[in-house]
Amino acid sequence: MSSTTLAVAPRLPWLPLLVGALVLLAWDLVVRWASVPQVLLPSPGSVAASLWQAAPALARHALATGGAACGAFLVAMLAGMVLAAAMMLSPLLNRLLYPNLLLFQLLPKVALGPLFVVWLGIGLPSLFAFAVFVSVFPVAVGALAGLRAADPNQLRMCRAAGGSSWQAFWHVRLPTSMPYVFAGAKVAATMAFTGATVGEFISANAGLGYMVMQAQARSDTPLIFAALAVLCVLGAALYGAVGLVEDAARRRWGTRR
Amino acid sequence: MPEAPTLIAEAIRFDAVGKTFPTRPVPLRAVESVSFAVRRGEFVAILGPSGCGKSTLLMMAAGLETATEGRLERGGVELVGPHRQTGVMFQDATLLPWLSVLDNVIFPATIRRIPRAKVLEVALRLIETVGLKGFENSRPHELSGGMRQRAAICRALVLDPDLILMDEPFSALDAITRDEMGDVLLDLWQHTQKSAIFVTHSIREAVLLADRVLVMSRRPATVAEELVVPFPRPRTPALADSAEFAAVVAHLRGVIARNMAA
Lengths: 257, 262
Ligand SMILES: Nc1ncnc2c1ncn2[C@@H]1O[C@H](COP(=O)(O)OP(=O)(O)O)[C@@H](O)[C@H]1O
Ligand SMILES: [Mg+2]
Fold this sequence. Notes:
The structure holds two protein chains of two kinds. Chain A has helices at residues 2-8, 14-33, 44-53, 55-89, 91-106, 113-120, 124-148, 152-160, 165-202, 208-217, 221-253.
């Protein structure tokens, strides 16, 4: 019980923040004293200035990327869990799909990006589909592992009480799978942003990835850094949101065995 | 008995029941031509060497395994699957760790889609009877092994079954807790007319709790000996300290030793 209260109070990670500040300072000093050209490595100050100046454009493009990534994440979560549930409940489907699922999990999926442009053209549909594609596998594989991790004794107990296999799924397998699903969701959250950004590199006219390509063409390196900084914040925000939902779920159905 | 629900005097009957597992390369014969019946209100203990097929026998009674030979009858009707009026206890408490003690106790009602309100009172009274009052909202990981097994007893009884099947329910507990749990069961059985099959390794438990003890042979399990326990009910834990009790235990130990040697 006391362990629950421990988990609630958030503490600022002072030491990592200190390390970050030191890196920024070192970066600034190196750029100043060695007079590194701005195109190669802009100073933290000029990145900050770029962030400030381009704020409206950054916000607009961040909205596009964030929207695409979050949407793709949600679709991937739903599709991945439905896929895992279907494979759990149908041995045939499992035999057909599971090896392929593992194979895709191992492939460098990002390399398949250009194919999506070939199939769906330049624009939101192809980059959205691509972001879903790269993030659905960790969810499906994680959820399936979780559904299968159910304790045989608990399943037998459920059956002895008269439970159908559907009830065993709902009352035993699904709760068991929750930690696995959240682990998959965290990987999927970062994969969704990777997918959206790479998609924008190759197939978009909006978004932070697109903005990075534009800035690169103009040799506006401070703007590249600024866009990347915003991207990091967005990615961390989605990851953090998943973590918050996980904490809430754990407090509601918390299991410490 | 003006309102006897049925004329069948037997809670469960095994008729030449056998079970062979289709293992490879040779099929494994776990149970062979077992025939016995448990009368309504009778408490039957089963003793036997480990691995002889006692759990298999009990799982068939629970409707979780099918017999490959013979036939089981539950209240005069052929048994084909888990029965609503049968409560089961396993070696481990197998509580669901994400549910509170109360929700675990009520779980069979949840599965049978019986409204919570209908069983709540019974559940709370059972929880109090086994000494878990105040722990209704605790999670299983906050309980000791003995307390978890108490919750499992409540779960097995919550739908007021007429037959309880217990597969070495206390064997994972330490000796003192184990005797305590035996006393809890004895106490519960003073007030009920439930039938029970109780698999155990403890001769003391068997003699203290049971009306009749079946001694199983080595695998494939079959009923080797049968002993009617000569002590009237109600019994108290103090019975276990009497000389008559010690004599019955010694006799049974001899029966088991002879059965092992054969
Ligand atoms: N599902 C199964 N498949 C194959 N063999 C089994 C299965 N369940 C039990 N057995 C075997 O049947 C025999 C009896 O097991 P069990 O009934 O658990 O014995 P006991 O409960 O008396 O210790 C053992 O040899 C065991 O290995
Ligand atoms: Mg056993």
